[in-house]
Amino acid sequence: MDPVWSGRLLLTGADRRSYLQGLLTNDIEALAPGTGCYAAMLTAQGRMLADMRVFELGDAVLLTLPKTITPAIRDHLERFVFAEDVQVADISESRPAIGVYGPQAADVLARAGLRGSVPAEPYASTRVTIAGADAWLVRSDEVGVAGFDVFVDRGALDAVRDALQRAGALPVTDQDVETARIEAGRPRFGADMDGDTIPLEAGLEDAAISRTKGCYVGQEVIIRVIDRGHGRVARRLVGLAFDPDAVVPAAGAQIASGNRDIGRITSAVWSPALSRPIALGYVHRDFVEPGTPVDVGGTRAIVSALPFWQRSQA
Q1: CB-based contacts of 52: which residues, under 8 Å, 6+ apart?
Q2: Which of 166, 193, 210 is the C-terminal boundary of a domain?
Q3: Structural domain span for residue 157
């Protein structure tokens, strides 16, 4: 399953893309059927309400986002529909997804009897059949590993999962996904981002923000920081690498330099790939340079460039 993006909203109606254009940071109107993007939804003060993946399916737009905030985002979207031809439906329960990730992902899908094309570009989507069920297949690497998400009706979920496992897919735990995510340096809303986060602080400017589209909620703050402030924000999300024998720090642990409090840990795991604890956290902008030594609860750490680890592509 996909614990990172387990909330789903489906927008239908002729105005779905133009409606989202004014609410999201990326260029939604530019999406053609079968394409998608990563985007954020902001307050007027430029703080994050959510991040999400956006897929134009041809007759609807699918948004995938953290499940805990999906009802609030659905209500937010519905609140701003006036005369537009837009309908918003929460399909989190009725349309679950199975993630198939890793260098053999496409081969596993083929052995499971997939009928239809396999999308090659990030955020691309196609309609396919697998295990006798109609599905949406989307290309994704948001957990730090390249692969695919297969969206099916809930009644077909078990049959599709069984077909994938017979084809060689191995189940993973939520902790496996979390480890891969942190190794890839991908911030997660609810852990590394929240309602106080400006996207630039989390390093989302290249992935989530269009510099060429028209106005959207929160744009004034973003443009002011980028153009007038030259992208400088008070804090930045960085990677932190620890010695192999160090204890994995807790979320919220203080990051210090000498006697100065410079930030907090947001996510941390033991990395099997690197054989050491690693973490994501925000530090003051004067301490973001890779190689900078810092202190976390009396334990030495080094600011690291992200990603920590780059896996093979599917």
Answers
A1: 5, 24, 38, 39, 40, 41, 63, 64, 65, 73
A2: 166
A3: 97-166
Q: What is the pTM of this model?
A: 0.95
Report whether 52 contacts 39 (CB < 8 A).
Answer: yes
User: Both ends of the chain: CA-CA distance in Å?
Assistant: 17
Q: What is the pLDDT of residue 125?
A: 97
**220 within a domain of the structure (yes/no):** no
Pairing of strands 61-65, 48-56: antiparallel
Alpha helix stretches (DSSP H) within the chain: 16-21, 70-79, 105-111, 157-166, 174-183, 205-208, 219-223
Domain closes at, from 166, 184, 217: 166
Give the model confidence (pLDDT) of 275-288 as tens digits.
999 999 999 999 99
**What average pLDDT does this structure show over 95-102?**
95
By DSSP bridging, strand 293-296 and strand 254-257 are: antiparallel
Q: Which two tokens stand for residue 286?
A: 């004067």
Single-letter residue type at 69: I
Domain for residue 238, yes or no?
Answer: yes
